[in-house]
Amino acid sequence: MGAHSHCSLSAIAVAVRLVAASALISACHPSQAAAEGTKLPTPAGQVWLKPAEVRDAKIEVQSIGPQVVEDSVLTSGVVTLDDQRSAHVFTPVTGRVIKILAELGQQVKKGDPLAIIESPDVGSAVSDAHKAEADLIAADHSLRRKKELFDAQAASAADVEASEDTYRNAKAELERARQKQFLLRVGNVDAVTQSYTLTAPIDGEILLRNITPGVEVQGQYAGGATQELFTIGELDRVWVLGDVYEVDIGRVHVGTPAKVTVPAYPDKVFEGRVDWVSGGLDAVTRTARVRCTFENPDELLRPSMYATVRITVDERKALAVPAVALLRLGEYTMVFVQIGELDGFVRYERLPVEVVDGEGPWLEVTHGLDLGQQVVVSGAANLSQKI
């Protein structure tokens, strides 16, 4: 028993001496693993690479500092027709539509027929004018007789004054009747069939048609609710109307560049300019209406489309990072920065940053980076795969 215990104790002592020697060798050569090419354990969020690996991954860094950055005002908007190149067509007469002469999408010229409306207003307008002319002639004759009798002292001054009032009323009624006839001359009037032909007031495309044969329509001058029958316009240039908050009004000017995107074409950016800024504010929303004009040769922007409007305002200098350096990881924005070298390895660390969204090559940094830090501008995706 004593001999066996002695042998066991000797074996244990030898093992302890071997472990101690191994630890001593490791302590004397801390970078031996690095010298042999073995990668050291790295902290979370960091990547350590050999210089050859850096070259293979084509990693490039750039020192960040103040840069000229685009500043912009972001708002929502609605696409509308250019009012100077569009027309909303109503009927001046009340009646029944008997024929449609223009279809949706059709190109029309000024004066081209759009629809024929059967209306008693046509006959009454003609007869009212004739009756007003006859009444004026009768009032003129009566006034002349009264004046002759007054000169012969056979009529009183009151009789003359009454005749003058009648004459003036008849003249005013004739002017009213003729004005109504003039308004109807915008189209073609057929007094025999009592029909009115509605015509196009401008050149353009039929964008909207709200009538069908047989429907009853209300005239503009009838005093009731009227309905727009046709919309005519051109889509090669459109407006986008948006609202700018009071705090941003001073930075938005006529001529300022503007860009819009619409849900129908999320990857396409339309470029235009601000051409009008409202002189007053909405009392409820405290916003000012802004109008931007966009060339639309492909007619992709259509009336009533919702749009996201980005209005570029004065450029300024700020601490900025190249847009190509950013990595989107879910809801977070990240960059890699070079933090130095150790034991033959180049060290990189992934950091979250906050930037002001924009479309320029440089984006303003609001949190996460300091002046002079070395940001990875090429190969960041390769580093991300190594974490």
Which CATH-level-2 architecture of the largest domain?
Beta Barrel
Largest sheet, in brief, is: 6 strands, antiparallel
Count of DSSP strands: 23
The best one-word shape is elongated
- Helical content stands at 25-40%
- The pLDDT mean sits at 83
Tally of discrete structural domains: 3
Strand content: 35-45%
CATH topology of the largest domain: OB fold (Dihydrolipoamide Acetyltransferase, E2P)
Q: What is the number of helices?
A: 6
Cα(first) to Cα(last) distance is 57 Å
Q: What's the SSE pattern? A: HHEHEEEEEEHHEEEEEEEEEEEEEEEEH
Integer-rounded radius of gyration:
43 Å
**CATH homolog superfamily of the largest domain:** RNA polymerase II/Efflux pump adaptor protein, barrel-sandwich hybrid domain
Low-confidence stretches: 1-37
The helix-and-strand class reads: alpha+beta
Identify the CATH class of the largest domain: Mainly Beta
